[in-house]
What we know:
The structure holds 2 protein chains of 2 kinds.
Chain A: H1 3-11, E1 15-24, E2 27-37, E3 42-46, H2 53-60, E4 66-72, E5 75-76, H3 82-88, E6 89-92, H4 104-110, H5 124-136, H6 152-166, E7 170-174, H7 182-197, E8 201-205, H8 209-215, E9 218-223, E10 226-232, H9 238-245, E11 249-253, E12 259-263
Parallel strand pairs in A: 3-8, 3-9, 6-7, 7-8
Antiparallel strand pairs in A: 1-2, 1-4, 4-5, 9-10, 11-12
Chain B: H1 7-42, H2 50-57, H3 63-66, H4 69-102, H5 115-129, H6 134-155, H7 160-184, H8 189-197, H9 205-224, H10 226-233, H11 238-241, H12 246-268, H13 274-286, H14 290-314, H15 320-339
Helix pairs in contact in B: 1-4, 1-14, 4-9, 4-10, 4-12, 4-13, 4-14, 5-6, 5-7, 5-12, 6-7, 6-12, 9-12, 9-14, 13-14, 13-15, 14-15
Amino acid sequence: MDPGEEKMTSRSDSYSFKNLTAGYKGKTILHSLSGEISPASVTALIGPNGSGKSTLVKAIGGFLPYQGELKLNGRELRTFSRRELGKMIGIVAQQANVKAAFSVYDVIGFGLLPHQTLLEPPSPEDESVILDAAAKLDISHLLFRPVTELSGGERQRVLLAMILAQDPPVCLLDEPTSAMDPCQALLSFQLMRDLAQSGKTVVVVAHDINAALSCADNYIALSGGSIVSAGAAGNLNEKILGELYNTPFAPYISSRGDKVWHPVLKRC
Amino acid sequence: MMNSPSPAEELQRFIAQRRRRYAELGIVLCALLLLTALWRIAQGEWNIPLSRVFELLSPFLPPQTSELPEALIIRSVRLPRFFAAAGAGGLLAVSGAILQGLLSNPLAEPYTLGIASGAAFGGAIGFFFSGLAVTPMAFAGALGALIVVNMIARHSGGSGANLVLAGVIANAVLSAGVTLLKAIADDKLGAIVLWLMGSFSGASLQGALSVWVGALVVLVPAWFYGPHLDAVSLGEGQGEMLGIDEKQLRLRLLCASSLGVALTVSHFGIIGFVGLVVPHVLRRLTGPSHRPLLVFCFLAGALTLALADGAAQRLGELPAGVVTALAGGPFFCWILVKRK
């Protein structure tokens, strides 16, 4: 590898972590993780409930104190200011609750906050950014409805549209499609694919393994706060899944030739 | 389908509609406030015709006229009283809106968070020992209560709900403290009781001025940080995710609110419900966006408390705090029931 290429890699938006230990007050969740998240790609975080997926998202989003090394673009994450992180990282949290009755248009517009100063008047470009984001998530017809009146899946689409308006190089999405219908969920995963193709680093927590893998380049499998397996999405197989979820997975070939997995009921 | 307007056109219509609603509400509130001002200044035990009121309010009044009793009543009694009630009402409503937004909790207001009882307790101690240091003691009490409440909330998880819970506890303890002071303050009992009941009768120009300064101290920074307050009010740490330092924002705005509330409490005692009810009503009329909401809260809070003070005076010089609580409580229940 020549030095020029290495410089390129460190400048694009990749994460690397070594002996990363993090958690909440008095409770360590992530135990000494080491690994990396490649730039311009979709990385799926998979694992059973309580395995530390959301905690890892919070840690790499800069919300948790941590020990060990956690670098974004080669720079220790704890040295970033909140505002810098707001420009760098867009996050959709697991709980897509919104407590104030802003219109969908306003909520998508909040994505622009990291790029605005407080006394800047709204510009026509901002309006078109918001309209485009809404169109991409097929919520143009909801623009002027209070976000508190929407269904869970619609609200998740609003929050994804907010991330599009925010336009950060890194997107961390924690179960962003959990309340969406299958069609909307697939469209959202397709959108993540497009984001990665346009150079963004996307990390997505998902329980729908088949939908997630349809768009992911890489996966990281967590169990009990440790990485049990990681690599290219194509290398994932029923053996890894079976051990990860402690349940056998059966592979199927769909009519279109893709491989999909379904758990075989054993425990429940 | 062909004729349906494009999203861009709908957006222009939406924005225009919103502007019109703001303009209408602004005009209505200003007009009502002006009418209330005229009522409060012209009417009283001695009714003075409006033309004479305008004459006497002129800054170029000849010295001998300004010595007339009617001029004195208007300029040194009614005018300060109106401005004191209006400024305090605006300040309390704005503080309530800020706290509700910051904590994304509809129950937050200076009273539920213990800020006002902290100010009352501090002020009562000041009263007890001298009667001079009431304002600084009230501010110290408000800030102290705020710090303690914040600490309890942080050590118990740091959520907005915990903050309100800690505030409720602080409120109970501090109110008991005030009662204790009343009990041992024998000779000063009457003064403390009267002060804490919340009244604008005998408001001085200096008191009116200080609540207006307090109102500006609260309103200006909150308006400046309006868009950040919007994002924070979504709850669930959404503000932080958008790169806003929530802790900084909380610290700045909570300190400003404490100072403002302490100024109000130290001069005019405890006036409840304005900070809770006014922002709720306004949010239903204007939407949750803070920049317009804060300005309208100031106007509506000023109007509400000026009217309440007028009613209190008409009912035989009752404390205004009693009127706001008596009218505000049932009104708030009505809003809650109607919303569902």
